[in-house]
Amino acid sequence: MSSMMTHIFARMSDIEERRRQRAAFLSRLYDVVDGDVSTFVSAWDVAEEVGMDASEARRVVAYFGEKGLVHVDDHRAGTVRLTAAGVDHVEEGRTGQGTHPQGNRG
After folding, report:
1. Cα separation of 101 and 98, whole Å?
2. Is 57 helix (H, G, I), strand (E, B) or coil?
3. Torsions phi, psi of 81, nearest 5?
4. Which domains are assigned to the chain?
5. Do the beta carbons of residue 61 and residue 45 sit within 8 Å?
6. Tens place of pLDDT for every residue, the chain, 106 residues?
């Protein structure tokens, strides 16, 4: 295998690991707050529980803040809460279904 192909596969592996860590973080945050959008917690504690280092935790919090899945109350302290979009995202991932009712189309 060429060194270029090895590099491409290594990058793909890095991307997959980063996605896995983000999913684990959001899922654990959901569990910690029991799906409640009004409970603030330490993102650093959640990240530690899923084995994430501080640098990656900061990236994940910034990413989910940009996506609107978490609200960051205090960047320095890492205080966050799950947003309604974050709850929907986790629940859709766990059930494979959206949260919006389809209604009758009779």
Report:
1. 8
2. helix
3. -140, 155
4. 37-95 (1.10.10.10)
5. no
6. 567 666 555 677 889 999 999 999 999 999 999 999 999 999 999 999 999 999 999 999 999 999 999 999 998 999 999 999 999 999 999 998 765 544 433 3
